[in-house]
Design a protein that fits this description.
The protein is of the alpha/beta class. The protein is about 40% helix and about 20% strand.
């Protein structure tokens, strides 16, 4: 299908599943978007080849969290656990897709987790994954796979965290750039039947804000509910984070190549904010 520079087409959403709380949230968020845009869900579960290889080493051990007792890491037990997680991922995808009435498919693959997820994403239009995976590490920012996906994934990217609530409003940064127009048009399509859309105008003065608002109203004409505009004169990640938090939590939609803020600022926002984020990639 030829690309229309004023629109974005999301017809297939690849969801990386590991049954962690963040992964479940990413599936829920992906289902909301799929329902709004009439897309299908393609779930994947990756059997971690590095974990399998470690389990095959004769000296590998696992330490139980609550008892601190160690024992030999049994390769057969690891494989049973991975197969169980795969079945759980399939069941979760099936339940969610049927609840939303969305076509879906599922497959299990084996390999390095980040690389396999990013490669699988190329088969769809949007990659959905959790901020962190099944890890005991307490972290505020993105996990390893999410960080690599932000840097390397060629498709649009949805990153969610546990506690995602579909009823919350959408927020989108707008600066009149091509990337911002794509992000806003996508936001309008998602928000069409589900709630308010907050447009954050990155404008340095009142005149610029007025021009931006008029253009944004035209771009977001597909939104069926009210649009609220907020003027934000700052472009550094710390001030933007504070402004976004004041507006309230919701799905934050960002263009990856905006003119008012650089790509690194966009990436810092994603890492800094514990909000679900939809990163719209600008086609080459």
């Amino acid at each position: 299908m030829p690309f229309n520079p004023e629109e974005i087409s999301i017809r297939r959403i690849t969801v990386a599943l590991d049954c962690s709380p963040h992964s479940r949230a990413s599936l829920e968020a992906a289902a909301v978007i799929a329902g709004a845009l009439h897309a299908e869900l393609s779930g994947i579960f990756v059997e971690d080849i590095n974990l399998i290889r470690v389990a095959e080493l004769p000296f590998s051990e696992e330490i139980h969290l609550h008892t601190a007792r160690s024992e030999h890491l049994d390769p057969e037990r690891v494989m049973r656990l991975l197969r169980l997680q795969s079945r759980q991922a399939l069941a979760l995808l099936t339940e969610t897709a049927e609840r939303f009435g969305i076509p879906h498919s599922f497959r299990t693959i084996r390999g390095p987790v980040p690389a396999e997820i990013i490669a699988a994403a190329l088969e769809g239009d949007l990659l959905a994954l959790g901020r962190t995976g099944r890890t005991l590490t307490c972290r505020k920012g993105l996990g390893t796979t999410a960080k690599q996906a932000v840097r390397e994934a060629k498709t649009h990217l949805l990153i969610a965290h546990s506690g995602f609530q579909p009823a919350r409003p959408l927020l989108v940064l707008y600066d009149r750039s091509k990337a911002a127009r794509l992000a806003l048009r996508t936001s309008a399509g998602i928000a069409g039947g589900r709630g308010a859309l907050h447009v954050l105008l990155l404008a340095g003065n009142e005149r610029e804000a007025k021009t931006m608002r008029e253009e944004a109203e035209s771009v977001a004409a597909g939104a069926k509910r009210g649009i609220e505009f907020h003027v934000i004169p700052w472009t550094d990640s710390e001030m933007l984070s504070q402004c976004i938090r004041m507006i309230g939590p919701g799905l934050l939609v960002l263009g990856d190549e905006m003119e008012a803020i650089g790509k690194e600022t966009v990436h810092r926002l994603i890492d800094r904010l514990a909000y679900p984020v939809l990163l719209v990639k600008t086609p080459a």
